[in-house]
Amino acid sequence: MSIVKINVLQVPVEQREVLEKRFASRAGSVENSDGFEWFELLRPVEGTDQYLVYTRWRSEADFQAWMEGPMKAAHQRGGDGSPQQKPAASGSTLWSFEVVQQAAPKAADSE
Ligand code: HEM
């Protein structure tokens, strides 16, 4: 079963647009990482003011290989290649989960 790694970002209100702009011009290298399955940037709407960077991986080893490799490059550059900018987030926490159960929409013709 896959694993899920969520980076929980504390983002001051005045930095929200900056963060979303940075992600909009992100490196896009995670898509080529072995064992990478899914990425979503989740903007808080209700119940929290924290952004969630949701990633899903085939295994813990695949995630660690990304953290030790492409992740560093993806975080060292500013979205547009300019030198490192002041972080938009004021704090971050990493949550780890194992996928215990999952479901996808049934294909229309399987009824
Ligand atoms: C100190 C903690 C971290 C901060 C402040 C942070 C912030 C950011 C920012 C601003 C970007 C946009 C790209 C850019 O500006 O170049 C980014 C990209 C990304 N971050 Fe983080 N990040 C952190 C750690 C992590 C961790 C632990 C994960 C693991 C779930 C993660 C997952 C990602 C992913 C998947 C991308 C897109 C990379 C790509 O496009 O290849 N980040 N991060």
Automatic annotation (TrEMBL):
InterPro entries: ABM_dom, Dimeric_a/b-barrel, Heme-degrading_MO. Keywords: Monooxygenase, Oxidoreductase. Residues 71-92 are annotated as: Disordered. It holds the Pfam family ABM. GO terms for molecular function: monooxygenase activity. PROSITE patterns: ABM. Residues 82-92 have a biased composition (Polar residues). Residues 3-94 form the ABM domain. This is Antibiotic biosynthesis monooxygenase. It comes from Streptomyces scopuliridis RB72.
